[in-house]
Write a structure and sequence with these properties.
Radius of gyration: 17 Å
Shape: globular
Distance between the termini: 49 Å
Oligomer: single chain
Number of helices: 6
Order of helices and strands: HHHHHH
Number of domains: 1
Helix content: over 70%
Largest sheet: none
Length: about 120
Amino acid sequence: MIFLKAFVVGGIICAIVQIFIDKTKLMPGRIMVSLVCLGVVLGAIGVYEPFAKWAGAGATVPLLGFGNNLYKGMKEAIDEDGFLGLFRGGFTSSSVGISAALIFGYVVSIFSKSKMPK
């Protein structure tokens, strides 16, 4: 049942984002940045954490979850280090995900051919 809930919630989030991409003139990059910022705001007002506990990976894997993760890392670092934690917290909390994306992207690029026009 946990997997079904995560699948449905993640699917609804992705479907809403796809509707925004199809029905607005916003570029996909702006929509993605907006999702990260929305995750930060929802985390800051205390809404996202209970939602993420209920929905599981369906809420933590999309970009909203990444924004919430950045917020949590920055909040913890600010509590520990004060103002300097503002700069350290986001990097610390998201470093594993960013590193994985870079490493897997590089590995895939080794085994695939670019289809860019000449």
